[in-house]
């Protein structure tokens, strides 16, 4: 009886621990969400499903798994963290790894899940914060400085970065050009896309600059081809030597002689092999004494094929 009760208590304890850990797992997932890019003045830029241009806020998922933003809160007032709760039950609130989601700050919640109940004021600094589903845990926040220009967004220098990630990149890569600015302005706004769009290939640009005539590329290509041929030659040479060594070893094992004795055995020359071949030919080849004479001999047959015409003809009658 005691053992049964002990097992029951153990199962209940495990279930409680599981239910206790679920909110923490959810919190760890939502912690990967980042406010990535904001456009305050939208005069000639991205439009929503209703054909209207409004300020928008882009959220980025920096995690390696899908994160559901449903139940989290977006606000522009630190004193009111639960200003807008992202509705639950919408499949579009699930943000795939390294992907984005866009919210419209148009103060028209009747337009759907992604339309907030507040807007952004271009004449003053705008504070934006993302809170977890408990309404207390701050996930991310940013203050957009006053003086924003139309159709120019304010976003992270790289998707999902923070100040530590920026400082680490600067230490590892001295040629990083962003300096110490985590937030920068983008004249080419990128809603629902990566902040930094690579419209040029640095390797190709460097090649055009340093090897405009293509001489270096030609020499490189030829070096690769001839280098490959040399490598193949060495491989075949090594394989041939290994095959000879293995053949010699098998001969030694089969005949029972030593390696020194095998070396003393004279190998037949090519002339000997040619003489042997000619002797075999002369012994097996059937021909006349003179190859230019054709000999025709009658062949006696001891059978009469049923379809042979010579056995079907009658003899010519004698007139005598």
UniProtKB/TrEMBL annotation:
GO BP: sodium ion export across plasma membrane
Location in or out of the cell: Cell membrane
GO molecular function, one term: sodium ion transmembrane transporter activity
Keyword list, A-Z: Cell membrane, Membrane, Signal, Transmembrane, Transmembrane helix
GO cellular component: plasma membrane
Signal sequence residues: 1-27
Transmembrane segments: 215-236
Domain of life assignment: Bacteria
Primary localization: membrane
InterPro entries for the chain: Lamin_tail_dom, Lamin_tail_dom_sf, Na_pump_deCOase
Domain spans labelled LTD: 23-150
Protein name: LTD domain-containing protein
